[in-house]
Amino acid sequence: MKAKYLFIVLSVLSIFVGCSKKFNSIPNLTDDLIFIRDEYYPMLPAYTELGYNTFGAMYEKQYFVVTKNIIPFKMQYEKGNMLMTLSGIVKSEESGYYNYSESKMAISFIFPFDECKSYEELLKLHNTKINLTSADCQVRQQIDTYSPKLLNVVEGELFFRRAQNLNIDDQKVAAVLSGTFWIKHRVGNQYFVIKNGRFDLSINENYFTYISK
Predict the structure, then answer these.
(1) CA 80 – CA 94 distance, rounded (Å)
(2) Residue 87 maps to a domain
(3) For residue 30, is it left (φ>0), alpha (ψ between -120 and 50) or beta?
(4) d(C-alpha 114, C-alpha 93), whole Å
């Protein structure tokens, strides 16, 4: 197992070193998505804090996970609120076999936070817990091309467990945000749960927007 992780880390470093000569332009970090399967939930990525650009969660009996065909995340700060959007697909696993019926889905978290004018300031999120039931927080869900819906969250938390710099050749290239999330929301008389959520994101100016007005 240690040898496996060492190989993965070396692979990541080789990718970044190969790109280090191009840092005069903004690196497209989402090209380097690395999906390490969770030991207990193999349809989900393992929880990591290395900027692997992955996320995943259990969504009822399905899985909401990252995919290489969709930009997995974006963050935006506007008028005192932080917006973090995770975009991927929802897919099923039945009797050990994949069900190839997939839907696109995005979950957006909106919450009040200190002003962040650049991705470097996202380090303020380190060890920050967001109570998603607070009146000043919102969670929105979009499936395929349907309009986004505001979820009626009855329980839930977004936890930025760690925020750190990603440095290559002594040059800062991104902020890495790693953490967990879960949501219980109500639709009519039914309740739906998104649980065991985890994310590990490398964010630079390509994926962070500051809106001053």
Answers:
(1) 43
(2) yes
(3) alpha
(4) 40
Q: Could you say which residues of the chain have pLDDT below 70? A: 1-32, 94-101
Q: Give how many domains the chain has, as a whole number.
A: 1
What the block records as the tokens of 194 is 């998104």
Domain assignment present for 5: no
Quick check: is 17 in a domain?
no
Q: Taking the model in full, what pTM does it have?
A: 0.83
Q: Which residue range is the domain that position 153 belongs to?
A: 29-211
Residue 161, both tokens: 């467990």
Report the first-to-last Cα separation within the chain, whole angstroms: 50
Summarize pLDDT for 106-165 with one digit per residue, the tens: 999 999 999 999 999 999 999 999 999 999 999 999 999 899 999 999 999 999 999 999
CB neighbour list of residue 190: distance below 8 Å, 6 or more residues apart: none
